[in-house]
Amino acid sequence: MIKNILSKxxxxxxxxxxxxxxxxxxxxxxxxxxxxxVAPYVLPGAPVFSHTxxxxxxxxxxxxxxxxxPEYRTIDTGDDGNTVILAASRIDETLYSSTALEPGSGKxxxxxxxxxxxxxxxxxxxREQATGYMAALIHFFSxxxxxxxxxxxxxxxxxxxxxxxxxIDADGALRYVVSYxxxxxxxxxxxxxxLILRGS
Length: 200
Prior knowledge:
- There is one protein chain.
- The chain has one domain.
- The protein has a seven-stranded antiparallel sheet with strand order 1-2-3-4-7-6-5, sandwiched between helices.
- 34% of the residues are buried.
- The chain is of the alpha+beta class.
- The protein has five helices and seven strands.
């Protein structure tokens, strides 16, 4: 049922598709029958990356000309009390990037890539494109990793995500969240983590 709803939403560009992407944003990528936990970055005072979404997109596209990100569009949720601003970028009919931004500064609280295969197809080529974008995203936020090492990191994340459905990996100042409920859809999110210094 989730997949059917998502497929329909992805065809309603831009707003209809984007709203469903933010089900992941606010649920923390959880699909269980119980109410999903609130994602940490939705909470007031949650850490942010140093980039605004416009700065991130410019630098990402310069570094990754083969995997460019179209402009992110903000989403009007109709709720003035939101602790985040939502925005999304449609790469193609199977791949989207979405983000939650800090009101005022516009800095990134989470950045996500979501891939959904075409109806009645596993579409190997579109999946390979999606993993290419995801590896580039990891490399952008972890420049100490080579692109090949970033791909190996992604492979490990997706392997754990596929086994568990939802997987969280805290790695230094970053948190990776993977939702992988089946072979035809997956989401990778990267979020900043506030580090607590010893003695502070």
